[in-house]
Specification:
With about 110 residues, the chain is mainly β. It has no helices and 6 strands. A 6-stranded antiparallel beta barrel has the order 1-2-3-6-5-4. Strand 5 and strand 6 form a beta hairpin. The radius of gyration is 16 Å and the shape is elongated.
Length: about 110
């Protein structure tokens, strides 16, 4: 994996649950695990018409250096948008990761 190809900046975040001090209800928040360089391999969008009307699903595939502990429970923030990780594959023996992500929200 050549460093020159890692031309995008992504943030990997993990969900944490805390208890609200005001009313004691659980609050879900996202904490930064790592900020790292990545290569954007694929950028695909799909427009679907359903019950909510027409929606556009954006799917991105990022290639990064290997980071231990990344799971499908994490999410990626790229250019201010959040993406859920829907698939991942290890490259070689802990050399890198391919993260297949889908945009969260509208």
């Amino acid at each position: 994996m050549r460093a020159g190809n890692l031309d995008r900046l992504i943030v990997i975040e993990r969900a944490v649950t805390a208890i609200s001090r005001i009313d004691g209800t659980p609050i879900r928040d996202w904490r930064t695990v790592a900020t790292m360089r990545a290569q954007l391999l694929k950028n695909a969008s799909d427009t679907q018409e359903g019950q909510r009307g027409e929606t556009t699903n954006a799917a991105l595939t990022f290639r990064t250096r290997f980071l231990d502990g990344v799971t499908l429970e994490n999410r990626v923030t790229y250019q201010g948008q959040q993406f859920e990780i829907i698939g991942m594959s290890e490259i070689g023996r802990r050399r890198g990761l391919d993260l297949i992500c889908r945009r969260v929200g509208p």
